[in-house]
Every structure is written in C-alpha cells, then in structure tokens.
Design goal:
With about 300 residues, this protein is of the alpha/beta class. It has seven helices and 13 strands.
Amino acid sequence: MNWKRRQFLFLGSLGAIGTGILGWRLVRQNSYTDNSVAIAGKPAKKDLLLRFVSVADTGTGAKGQYAVAEAMNFYHRQNPYNLVVLAGDNIYNNGEIEKIGAVFERPYQPLLKKGVKFQACLGNHDIRTDNGEPQLKYPGFNMQGKRYYTFRRNQVQFFALDTNSNADWKKQLPWLELELSRSDAPWKVVFGHHPIYASGVYGNNPAFIQAFTPLFEKYGVQLYINGHEHHYERTKSINGTTYLVTGGGAGTRPVGRSEWTAYSASSLSFAAYEVYPDRIEVKAIGTDKRVFDQGVIQVKSV
C-alpha cells in the first residue's frame, strides 16, 4: 500500500489521541548523528556492536527511582555501556525543569560522571510546562531542541518520537518515513513515550498501530521502546518488530498478558540490550539486580 493510500486510510485516526491529520509534506530536518561507540572497562564481547539500556517514567526523585538507578549503575560496573534511552515522563508531575537536580542529575550522578549519555523523548507529563521546551533545551537530555530526531551508534540507528497528543503529526510521520527510507543501518530502533502494543492500564493504541506498524514493517524496524505504562513487557515479534515497555523506572502499575506477550511483569526495572550483527539480546533487570526476563530479537524476522 503506497503512502498516499495509507494516509487516506488513517486521516483523522490520530484524533483519538487528540490530533487530526490534514495533510503533510516531506521534510528533512531534526536529524543528527553520533557514531561514538567507545566503552571503557572490560573488553567487549566478540562481535558486540553496542550495549545500551532503556528506562522510562523515571522523574519522581523518590525511592523507586533511586533503586532502579542503583541497579543501572551496578549493571554498568559489570557490563559497561554509554547510552540510556530515556522514554519520557522525565520530570513529574508537570515537567518543571527546576526539579532536574532531584529527578535526574542526582539519581543518575554515577552514570553521568562516567560519561553515559541519556537520549530522551517527551512524555505527557513533560509537556505540562511550556510544552516541554525547557527539556528540549536541557543538555543532559541530548535532544538539541528537537521534539523528534535521529542518531546513530555504530550499526544501530535510533529514531526518537514525540508521541504526545499535540505532536506535529503533519511533519513528524513523513519525517519518520523519510529518515527510515534513507537509513542504511542494519538495526533500526524507534522510541517514544506512548505504547503501541501493551497489556497494562492503557492497552493497545489502535491509531498508533495503524500509523506506525506499516512503516516499521516496510523499513525493517526491529524494536520499538516506550514507557507510559508503568510495567515491563516484551512482545513476541509482530511482523518483524518487538515492542518493549520499560516504564517501571520509578513506580509500577498492574499488567496482564495478551496473545502476543512474550513476558510481562509489574516490576521496578530497566531493560538492557546487547546488539550483535545478527541479533539483539534483551534482558530485564529488577532492583534486586537480577535478570527476570531475557529474549532475542533477530535482525530479520523468519
């Protein structure tokens, strides 16, 4: 199905999340590249391309956040990494940048001191103050003033999205398709705050399924990472894409299971990824510093 036909089919469907699409044009903006992959510490595993972690719904400054942060720091000592995907709701309750010390700089101080880079996107709580603009400009979130952007680490290209109800869908969706079509990276990872598939309080997002999954399948996106749901959940491969909820960064809510769920848990946790030429090995790690789920994402679905 071509883009124009697909556009027609879900015109207005994103209105379910507060947005109407009236048409758009392709734009080439909001992209930048970071090819640094150096990792200090013990020698890298054979053929390891990149190690990174993800976490979301973190910004409370409370006990749960510190417990997950300590587990992330412990994992770093054992398995050095230099990238954290921070998938939104970075500052509760209203995105107040004056809280940044309490909800980001102090909890993650050990990692920041070691040069670990956080790449953030905006959650629904983050846009309650000045539509998230202070966070876009905050150096520690590495968004460089952009609500959606792309960057590359070795053979992995990441695409950060603004999935909020007031996002500029007229530009963002064509931007995403353009950037995906231009990418020659064998691994493509998209992240945003809101889920596409999930078995928690909010569940699936039909408008996002209609808007995003055809692009993911067409351009070979192997992984989508999100928060918003305060649990951990890893799906089976759905048309070549694994959907991973990593929203237990500071608190939890109940989660069930769906027919496509590989594993789910209402646990304070983060996810760790080791990228190889043919696979990504995923681990879910709790505040007891133990792995409670692990799976493999293939570079191409079979």
